[in-house]
């Protein structure tokens, strides 16, 4: 277990919580038995009092295996619209006409593909050792199945993107340097990073957002420590996606003598402790809510089996007694089983079998509430909607 902070190396850290979780909550399994016997990990949530960073002190990267059963795609209209909004923001803000854009840790390349489709003058290069698709899907888009290296940087980059990567990387400050290293001969390269906001998790007490894949829980303040290098400047942090994410914008190799802004939000360690103390009550309370509905013969549906739905059903319905259906619109997950508790993930088509039935829909991410209500409205179902704390929506 780490006894110093992965970012600032301080030993002034507090261990706040220990939980067991599936090592990969976005991996699905062909059989119930495979799901039950999946690899699990320990989350020892620790907080650094010096740089305000929170992290899993017991994180062991070796137990993670990103293979074909790993799928974090969200084929939702709302999420697609969010992607489009980021693309427009980046294009306008960074004047990307004819620009060269690198996406580090691009995963399946969905975001970069959209950016290059919307703006054909952009030349996009996606870098990810786990990338498996077409290496040249568009005339202006190339994928490289590798780690980021200097020899891949032929043209001066106009923007470096890294979305939803830093929360998975054990040493995020070193990773920033890994991104900067291949481009260190170029001046004034903007960088755009997106990560979940731990401030939002703490404030909203969403225990289902604590997962093993995410070894890092950034506050705005802690990102200052990541950017505390002679070659990087942190310019701006913006909350996005209903406050759940942070857009982190900075410059590598600045030719000006810029100073990072220092008015970023700090998370009070006491607030994290309050959140942790609330977890048991939250879990007991939502269990009671589900039980009440169950007693009234409602069918219980959990909607959204990405991180949130998987962690939620694992913690509040270990024995699969209360949740009747776990729905996800990602076809790759349907008819497969979620890790540990082995809840079967089904398509929204299941609603056809529930006509004239009373259902309770637990909406795992309220950003999708309108999309979910529209889908349910296509059927003759009497449905109540709640968030994962039991609040009616
Ligand atoms: Zn620290």
How much of the residues is beta strand, in percent?
A: 15-25%
Compute the number of helices. 9
Question: Helix content range of the residues, please?
Answer: 25-40%
Provide the CATH superfamily of the largest domain: Vaccinia Virus protein VP39
pLDDT < 50 runs, ≥5 residues: none
Secondary structure category: alpha/beta
In one word, what is the shape?
Answer: globular
Give the rounded overall mean pLDDT. Answer: 95
Tally the beta strands.
16
Bound molecules: zinc ion
Distance from N terminus to C terminus (CA atoms, Å) equals 41 Å
Reported CATH architecture of the largest domain: 3-Layer(aba) Sandwich
Q: How is the main sheet built?
A: 7 strands, mixed
Strand order of the largest sheet: 6-5-4-7-8-11-10
Q: What name does CATH use for the topology of the largest domain?
A: Rossmann fold
- Helix and strand sequence: EHEEHEHEEEHEHEHEEHEHEEEHE
Describe the structure.
The protein is an alpha/beta fold and 393 residues long. The chain has three domains: 51 residues, no CATH class; 194 residues, Vaccinia Virus protein VP39 (Rossmann fold, 3-Layer(aba) Sandwich), CATH 3.40.50; 101 residues, NAD(P)-binding Rossmann-like Domain (Rossmann fold). 25% of the residues lie in helices and 23% in strands. The chain has nine helices and 16 strands. The protein has a seven-stranded mixed beta sheet with strand order 6-5-4-7-8-11-10, with helices on both faces. It has a five-stranded parallel beta sheet with strand order 14-13-12-15-16. Helix 4 links the parallel strand 7 and strand 8. The longest helix has 27 residues. The radius of gyration is 21 Å and the shape is globular. The mean pLDDT is 95. The protein binds zinc ion (ZN). Zinc ion (ZN) binds next to loops.
